[in-house]
Amino acid sequence: QVQLVESGGGLVQAGGSLRLSCAAPGRTFSTYAVGWFRQAPGKEREGVAALNRSGAFTYYADSVKGRFTISTDNAKNAVYLEMNSLKPEDTAVYYCAASAFNSPHFVSEAYEYWGRGTQVTVSS
Q1: What is the pLDDT of residues 18-55, one digit of tens each?
Q2: Over residues 1-27, mean pLDDT
Q3: SS3 category, 110
Q4: What is the DSSP track for 34-103?
C-alpha cells in the first residue's frame, strides 16, 4: 500500500501561481508513474499532468499546457505541480496518483494509489 499526501492548495487570484506537492511517506516515486488529476464540482475527474515511470516523459492536458509543469526532486521523494497563470476554471480538488504501469497517461483506472486531494480555488 502506498499512501500519497498532497499539499500546497489554497486560494489565489486569477493570474497567480501555486505549487502543489505530493509525497509518499517512507517511499520514493522511482518505481511509479505519477499523475495529477483534478475534479471540479459537478464535473468528471480529469487528468492534467503526468510523468512516466522513468521520469523522461511528461504529458499535459491541452487546457494547462504552457501553464502547468510536473516535476520531481532529484531523489524522487516528491512530485510537484507548478501552476502558473491560474484561471478561475482551474478551480478544483487536485489529486496525486501513482501507478506501477510505465506510462498510464491520464487513464485513471491505471493508477492504483490516490491521495485525498487538495483544494485549489482561483478567484476572478
Answers
A1: 999 999 988 889 899 999 999 999 999 999 999 999 99
A2: 95
A3: helix
A4: EEEEEE-TTS--EEEEEE-TTS--EEE-TTTTTTEEEEE-TT-SEEEEEE-S--GGG-EEEEEEEESSS-
d(CA 119, CA 95): 9
Q: Is 75 exposed, middle or buried (0-12, 13-18, 19+ CB in 10 A)?
A: exposed
The amino acid at residue 86 is L
Each residue's pLDDT tens digit, 89-116: 999 999 999 999 999 999 999 999 999 9
Residue keyed to cell 499526501? 5
Of 69, 68, 49, 71, the closest CA to residue 59 belongs to: 49
The pLDDT of residue 1 is 82
The number of residues in the chain equals: 124
